[in-house]
């Protein structure tokens, strides 16, 4: 099983929008996290609304968070890369 998860995070008051933000979370990453984030950007940027790709790389916890629901795309990408 791949460490790719779906998470909903409440929106902040400053966003002036109600509801939650959907996140795709990749955990337990070993290796170059920044290179993986750039590869995911190249894959997912055309699929994002308005072409805005939001990604957060956390080296301390070995987690990449991507705004949006991309579970299937990320899983297929990781499998094609041999993870």
TrEMBL record:
GO terms for biological process: translation. Its main location: mitochondrion. InterPro entries: Ribosomal_mL49 (IPR007740). The keyword Zinc does not apply. It is found in: Mitochondrion. GO terms for cellular component: mitochondrial large ribosomal subunit. Keywords: Mitochondrion, Ribonucleoprotein, Ribosomal protein. The keyword Cell wall biogenesis/degradation does not apply. GO terms for molecular function: structural constituent of ribosome. Gene3D superfamilies: SUI1-like domain (3.30.780.10). It comes from the Eukaryota. Belongs to the mitochondrion-specific ribosomal protein mL49 family. This is Large ribosomal subunit protein mL49. It comes from Paragonimus westermani.
